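Repro:
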Amino acid sequence: MASKDKLGKASEAAKAAQSNRYVQRLLEDEELRSNLVSAYGAARSAYGRMTNGKPAGKALMEDRKLQSELRNAVDSLREASSSLREEPGTSRRRRRGGRTLLLITVGAVLAVALNEGLRSKVLDMLFGAEEQFDYSSTTSPATPEPAGVAS
């Protein structure tokens, strides 16, 4: 009787898992699984570094590798959670490309605006180099009348 109860509970759990959309996404989405595995690996490595004998607070503040591993774990979890929130058909690659393009554009505009040498180079490329010329007048200045002559 007890084995029939366990079998019934197991089949109910399997049916519940099949109908859960998050479990389905986990089974279908390779990128989601890789993000979760990456987060697990980074968190496990960070835990190993924290339990190496130093006090945890000191390790968190001073150990750069530990901070990097924690940052990797957080980034992977963030990617996984955003992947779970969005629809399965949407691609996140396009959005990243747009962000990168925007960042490059803003950086280029700031570089041109703040660097005088670069600004003159860009203007020379766009409109041609400025012509350097000497101005010489074709007229001569009027000669003053002598002081002794009155009209």
